[in-house]
Specification:
mainly alpha; Mannan-1_6-alpha_mannosidase; hydrolase; binds 2-acetamido-2-deoxy-beta-D-glucopyranose; signal; 48% helix; membrane
Length: 451
């Protein structure tokens, strides 16, 4: 059931201050993005002042989302040329590296799934792609390849589901039996992006292997629906057929990258298949929605951040597969207009609404980051993703610290030789408090009845 709430909420939201945005004007897009990035950064700084621990935002958000948000700020700097948050972001990433130099901080053990780790790995990879100067004694690319290498070690043996990655890293964490599409999709995207930036075939082989596994396990359907997950305890014989926007996004982006690299029909077909986004776009307004929970207002704090991740991949996929540009831009423009209209306040007071299709309220880190992703996503067609030969027309790329070396090849993005002292092993202890699988099913089942 689609909620029919036309004039009234829109009328009410007109009373909110809104951020000015002309989606056809790059300066206006950058101005709008800078207001939102400024809000996110101000909120972070106030949490940091209190905690003294770089890399963490406020509760009740989970650690994965912090990695994703810092990644968004790296993309923001690349897309707009505004480098004022680079030092802050660099400090956050370096502080959260943890064990094995692979984004496994012991404090996060109870919340540390493969997917969570990969969000930080992608942040570091983005820093490499857009040419951030390597930090003292480390390389951004190595931090990302370390995440990849730890996850390869965790790939299931043949007798368990024929392969694949479990959601959780540690057996004592709830959800260790769960095989989520997002976990496998993040590994796929990480592998595809590493393949692109390094040209090393190990990464493209693993990207293909993980994709083929998801197809054979039927986490990805013939029609390219991406189901939520399956259960290793039943040898992946049953599929949980909820659909979220974010795994759809990461499979789309990864496929587009592989298509760009290989021009193989397999990846063209996959790109086109995942790009059938009707389920995630509201018909009337043409804006991105989270269909499994948005209409019945059941999205939890994690789920409220998924639309931005989807939007980011949609924008980036169109860089690698330009035939998607028209569709992608249309969705991003409609979403960006509504998102800007529904942001209010500035600095620490910034609040962006979750829903772009109607007037439903609810504010937080995920909502603000969603707005930033759809707005700055409009700039990818000019700036490119930083990886490979495309784009890079952004005239203000030089500037603050941390962005040098982006053009001149001064930054070394070739991974270091693997250090055997650094080889993966499991670490950590303690229980876990993140959303339970049972809770997810319940929320999803409730949602499914009302969509
Ligand atoms: C584009 O946006 C900028 C900044 O908001 C504004 O100053 C400029 O006049 C706009 N240009 C056009 C052609 O509307
Ligand atoms: C881990 O938690 C301790 C205690 O709160 C804190 O001092 C430390 O900085 C934290 N480390 C990380 C990487 O978050
Ligand atoms: C589990 O399924 C895989 C194929 O998906 C199969 O190769 C394996 O033998 C099965 N394991 C058991 C214990 O039945
Ligand atoms: C390719 O990547 C793998 C995985 O990180 C690494 O072990 C291998 O040494 C790399 N090969 C080359 C030629 O760099
Ligand atoms: C690959 O990406 C580049 C950069 O965006 C683009 O110019 C080129 O057309 C793409 N190749 C294909 C086959 O789509």
């Amino acid at each position: 059931m689609h909620r029919i709430t036309l004039a009234l909420p829109l009328f009410l939201s007109a009373a909110r201050a809104a951020i000015d945005l002309d989606v056809t004007n790059d300066s206006s897009i950058k101005d709008a993005a800078s207001k939102i990035a400024g809000g996110i950064a101000a909120q972070y700084k106030s949490v940091l002042e209190e905690s003294g621990v770089p890399g963490l935002f406020n509760d009740p958000h989970y650690w994965w989302q912090f990695g994703y948000t810092f990644n968004t700020l790296i993309e923001y700097a690349h897309l707009t040329g505004d480098n004022q948050y680079n030092d802050m972001t660099k400090e956050a990433l370096l502080f959260q590296i943890g064990d094995l130099d692979a984004f496994m901080p012991p404090n996060q053990t109870r919340n540390l799934g493969n997917e969570d780790q990969a969000f930080w790995g992608l942040a570091s990879l983005t820093a490499a792609e857009v040419g951030w100067e390597n930090p003292e004694g480390k390389k951004w690319i190595d931090l990302a390849t370390n995440v990849f290498n730890t996850q390869v070690e965790r790939w299931n043996p043949e007798e368990t589901c024929g392969g694949g990655l479990r959601w959780q890293i540690f057996p004592f964490n709830k959800g260790y039996n769960y095989m989520s599409s997002m976990t496998n999709g993040m590994f796929f995207l990480l592998s595809a992006r590493l393949a692109k930036i390094t040209g090393n075939e190990t990464y493209s082989e693993w990207a293909t292997k993980s994709y083929d596994w998801a197809r054979s396990a039927e986490l990805i359907s013939e029609e390219y629906s991406v189901w939520d997950g399956t259960d290793a305890d039943s040898n992946c014989s049953e599929i949980n057929k909820l659909q979220w926007s974010y795994p759809r996004g990461v499979y789309l982006e990864g496929s587009a990258i592989l298509y760009n690299m290989t021009e193989d029909d397999k990846w063209k077909e996959a790109t086109e298949g995942f790009a059938q986004t009707e389920l995630f776009v509201e018909e009337e307004a043409g804006v991105i929605i989270e269909p499994a929970c948005e209409w019945n207002e059941k999205c939890n704090v994690d789920q409220r951040a998924y639309k931005g991740i989807f939007a980011r991949s949609l924008a980036r996929a169109a860089v690698s597969a330009p035939f998607l540009a028209e569709t992608s831009n249309k969705i991003l423009q409609a979403s960006a207009e509504k998102a800007a209209e529904r942001c209010d306040g500035e600095g620490e007071e910034l609040e962006c609404e979750f829903t772009w299709a109607d007037g439903q309220e609810g504010f937080g880190l995920g909502e603000n980051t969603n707005a930033l992703q759809v707005i700055q996503g409009l700039l990818y067609s000019k700036a490119g993703t930083g990886s490979g030969s495309e784009g890079g027309e952004n005239e203000d790329r030089e500037g603050g610290e941390g962005s040098e070396g982006s053009e001149g090849g001064a930054n070394d993005n070739s991974p270091s030789e693997t250090d055997s002292a650094n080889s993966p092993q499991e670490t950590g202890a303690a229980g876990r408090t993140q959303i339970t699988w049972a809770g997810l099913i319940l929320a999803g089942a409730l949602a499914a009845f009302t969509v």
